[in-house]
Amino acid sequence: MPPTTPPVVFVRGVGFHAVNEMQCIAWIMAQLRAGHGGWVLTANLDHLRRLVGGSDYSKLCSTASLVVADGMPVIWASRLQGTPLPQRVAGSDLLSSLSSAASDEKRSLFLLGGDPGTAEAAAQVLQARHRALAIAGVCCPSLGFENVPAECEKIERLLTRANPDIVYVALGSPKQERLIARLQPLFP
């Protein structure tokens, strides 16, 4: 049975899950233990702007399993409307705290994105901090990779071989959400 989805607070018509960072991590790890996939959208004010009004971006993000507020303006807006979200849950913070939880449970990570060498450097830092953490792989695709079918297929092959428990995607928005939408049916 999948973990219960956290309550939702709507800000400008966009649903944000009312969780703090530790609740977010607990939910993700419970999903993993239950054998369920999914993806987390860490939405800031720019994301909110693009999500409002049923845009293509909104449709792209509609399959996110968890949407958290990655930006204080979103938190402030929720407070002003009288339905406060509990805390900012920044993707940059999750990188460390979720990696710690993954290490505790002997889970594996794949780091996808950034400039050449960035994922490798991040993997080294994460492994130094969390000795039991398994880095299943890294990939820093070249600029414009999303327009080259062979490059996207290469990413699919890398993920298939690596078979990670968690994939961090850092390609900038909306490129990363487009790639997630493409990969999600293959790697839930």
Radius of gyration: 16 Å
The coarse overall form would be globular
Order of helices and strands: EEHEHHEHHEHEHEH
Helix content: 40-55%
What is the total tally of β strands? Answer: 7
- Work out the strand percent: 15-25%
Major sheet:
3 strands, parallel
Low-pLDDT sequence parts:
none
What is the residue-averaged pLDDT? 94
Widest sheet, order of strands: 6-5-7
User: Helix segment count?
Assistant: 8
CA distance, first residue to last residue? 16 Å
- Helix/strand class: alpha/beta
Description:
With 188 residues, the chain is α/β, with parallel strands linked by helices. It has 8 helices and 7 strands. The protein has helices at residues 21-33, 45-51, 56-61, 72-80, 91-104, 118-129, 149-162, 175-183; strands spanning 8-11, 14-17, 40-43, 66-69, 108-113, 134-139, 166-170. The strands form 3 sheets. A 3-stranded parallel β-sheet has the order 6-5-7, with helices on both faces. A two-stranded antiparallel sheet has the order 1-2. It has a two-stranded parallel sheet with strand order 3-4. The two termini are 16 Å apart. 28% of the residues are buried.
